[in-house]
Amino acid sequence: MNLKKVLFVVVGAMLLLTISYFVIDAGGEKIRHNYTFIGESENWKAVYRMDGEEKFFDRGGKGQYDANSKDDFTLTFKGTDRELAEIKDFYYSFESPRRKRSTSESFEEPLTSKVFKAGGMHDSIVVRGNDVIEVVVEWDGDKEIFEMKIEE
Which of 67, 90, 110, 149 fits 85 for a cystine, CB–CB 3.0-4.6 Å? Predict the structure, then answer.
């Protein structure tokens, strides 16, 4: 058999499989999620926004699931600028039944921004509207724990 014919058959088969994958994946049920969770404590306020999509589809006679989401977490210090500037050691985490993230930092220079942000794109992680998100904030020996719930 000619090498050009073999290469043509292989490339054609790969192209057919790729097109079939996208056609099969396009079907099925899609569920969009767009939630905003809010919560606060004495010294901190948090907002968590999540925009995601779940896909349920059939591939080769088997049920399949895929999900992706984009999220943004904003933590805001409610104290004075002077209190903010005194913070040297800082840790926060937020956790739902499906997602956990934490950050720890030490500062040599006085803080000037009261807002701390985290977020990004995620495969296979979609927070649900009935989830409760726990936030833990620790700074210089102080600690506050509070919950974020879906914004009504």
Answer: 110
CATH number of the domain enclosing 94: 2.60.40
Does 53 map to a domain? yes
Mean pLDDT score of the chain: 86
Domain count, the chain: 1
Q: Specify if 107 maps to a domain.
A: yes
pLDDT tens, position by position, 55-99: 888 888 888 888 888 999 999 999 999 999 999 999 999 998 888
pLDDT tens-digit series, residues 94-118: 998 888 899 999 999 999 999 999 9
pTM of the model: 0.75
Q: Is residue 13 part of a domain?
A: no
User: What DSSP assignment string belongs to the chain?
Assistant: --HHHHHHHHHHHHHHHHHHHHHHHHSSEEEEEEEEEEEE-SSEEEEEEEEEEEEEEEETTEEEEEEEEEEEEEEEE-S-HHHHHT--EEEEEEE-SS-EEEEEEE-SSPP---EEEEEEEEES----TT--EEEEEEETTEEEEEEEEE--
110 by DSSP, 3-state: which? coil
